[in-house]
Amino acid sequence: MVTATEFARLHSIFLSILGNELGSFPPVPEAVEEIMNRQGDAAATPIPDEMGAWLDLLDMAISPQRLRNYGQRQRLEEPAIVSLLRYWVAKAPHTPADRDKVDWLATYLFRMREEESNRPTGWAKSELLEILKGIPSPSLSQNTQLALAELPSLIQDITDLQTLNQITDTHLLAKGRTLKKQVGEEYFHPTVLAAIVNYNLMLGKRFEELMKQALDQTHSLRASQELRETFSEEELVWDDYHTATHALQQLSDLSRAKPLETESPAVIQETALDPHLMRLGIDSTREASKLQGRIKELASHLRANPAITSIRICGKPLSLEDWESQSFQSLSWQRESGLRGEIIEAISRAIGFILRIEEELYAYQNKKSLGDQWRKHLDSLFYLLCEGLRHKANLLRLSLIARKSKSPEMAQHLTLTAKKLETSLAKVSDLF
Known about the structure:
Elements: H1 4-22, H2 30-36, H3 49-61, H4 64-74, H5 78-90, H6 96-117, H7 125-131, H8 142-149, H9 151-160, H10 164-170, H11 172-182, H12 190-219, H13 224-230, H14 233-238, H15 245-257, H16 275-279, H17 284-304, E1 310-313, E2 316-319, H18 322-330, H19 338-367, H20 375-404, H21 408-429
Antiparallel strand pairs: 1-2
């Protein structure tokens, strides 16, 4: 039950948030004024149920975006944050907007604490238990426990990100949203909320680093006017990264289109664009760019971390053989001549196909029930199937040449990588 003191505090906060954007607020009912003016013992008594409905009405007018705008521009103090968290967590039943508000507000609180103490938050369960003391929190269901078990691998994927393109191409944001929805009403449990805050803080830090890197990169483009017309940098920085999907994709595409001259991305074999795919409405140029971008990103990552023997794709590990990792590390601007150079590119390209297939399969499976959002991922998979089959044939051709050139070990390497690619292609083939 909400006491008169708690009511007055929440009412004041709600009016501040709404008044910040509305400029003024309608007159407050006399019954509300009476509750807010209570003193002493009267202030500690619960308010009538109908007055709780007045708070609910104000709450409905505060969208998650409006809350974020206020918090980012006015700065919410910790007592106000605690009151709001307790109010939204204790509500029953909850709405999707309540989850979004608690998601942002809890993360905001611990990010603010990090800035003040200059120390990472770590696991915030004990702090959240203290904040939410007195609010019932029953044992977690098995479904929620399984969902939480997926978060460590997702956080590892976030840590491994090297460019903003990987956030949009690997659909990590979508996977995070799916996990949050999967826990349902138990989202508001202190244990779940602590795990979500940890995920949000890790993603937020990496996101901001990669976004700054992408913005710096696009600032060097000649088409700076195009950049300014496409989106507002200030809006991107202030907005919640979960809600800025379209702007992120535009920024990602711009930073991918023309990389800085100071980088050393790998030389990648151009894709032979299929006019049949174009007639089906599949943008081969865009798909080829995504494929090449992933190969370049992985080459850069493996050059910086040569001891890596596996990479994670949408939470799943993909083992890399020694010759596959070495092929990526050998890619450079200056294409190596001869059979060896062709083999290096072919092996790297095969792994690139596998990466893209797994990413698009994950996105397709998660969006099958969301209108027609799955269609673009199915188009990408059809492109990857067609081009991947061609590339598998090229790997086997190179294997035959290597064998005839007295390089049986290299021939075997090419054959094994071709089989790995074939396994991924079989998953896509089953869809058509």
